[in-house]
Design goal:
This protein is an alpha/beta fold and 319 residues long. The strands form two sheets. Strands 1-6-5-4-2-3 form a six-stranded parallel sheet. A hairpin with a 4-residue loop joins β7 and β8.
Length: 319
Amino acid sequence: MSEIIDITTALSRLLKADRVLLICHKNPDGDTIGSAGALYHALKNLGKTVAVLCADPIPARYAYMDLTLYTGQFTPGYTVAVDVAGIQLFGDAIAEYTKDIDLCIDHHPSNPGYARSLLLDGEAAAAAEVVYELLVKAGIEITPTIADCLYTGISTDTGCFKFSSTTARTHEIAAKLIGAGAHLVSLNGILFESKSRSRIAIERIALESLEYSFDGRCATIFLTKEQIAQAGAETIDIEGITSLPRNIEGVEVGITIRQQPTGSYKVSVRTVPSVDAAAICAHLGGGGHRQAAGCELLGSLDNAKAALLAEVEQALCKG
């Protein structure tokens, strides 16, 4: 189990570290990349050797963060995981670097404590909020580039401030980032107002698979690896459709099941406030937040569906 530390302790260790490797979770989203990006630029501005590592390619839409990706150019002296709720989320491709994590910065209450030390704020809407507090505590200047990274993390993990995890503090931090030079209009355009053709294609395919369960209280969509390849969809396109089934009128639990290249199934669960998505996924080896959680299942699609629906049925009875 991790040593639970506060921001002051985490800051002290980070400032003493050199050759820092910042590690994101596989299938990277805006929060893991934005949090890593903010730390990358802050540490780089302090003169440290630093790079970012992810098992999967960073989506092209995040190119404005201008990150240096790790390709073995130095021997890591200190490893930091950002927004990685469990060790299984790193991905096998980078297992060499994730066996011994020095520090994890996270906001997922389900984090099991796999790192040597853990800086966790389960009340934060995004890991980027935790990183912001850390940088402010350090007296590090929030440059426009850092502000862009942090705004990306916070805005994407809150659904552009629509999710119930959004707090007054979330808005206060966003305001500070705008004041620090975050490019609000262009970022919102990139993140929320533009869809690639492959995103539209994958939405169409996903909706064709739509199934309802439990008198319409649960909706599920499925994507095979062949369909994903056919649409030419990137990770960011697929992550963007996870809210589709939940957004349907009367649906309390929305499930997105997508087949990975290895054949396993990545599951995203979105729920109304009265139903605990994290509990549904925890029973299947995953975790997350009360209204947004995930897991990865092996075996056939039918078995994956059956296991999920059994958990959903219990959760709906409790909800």
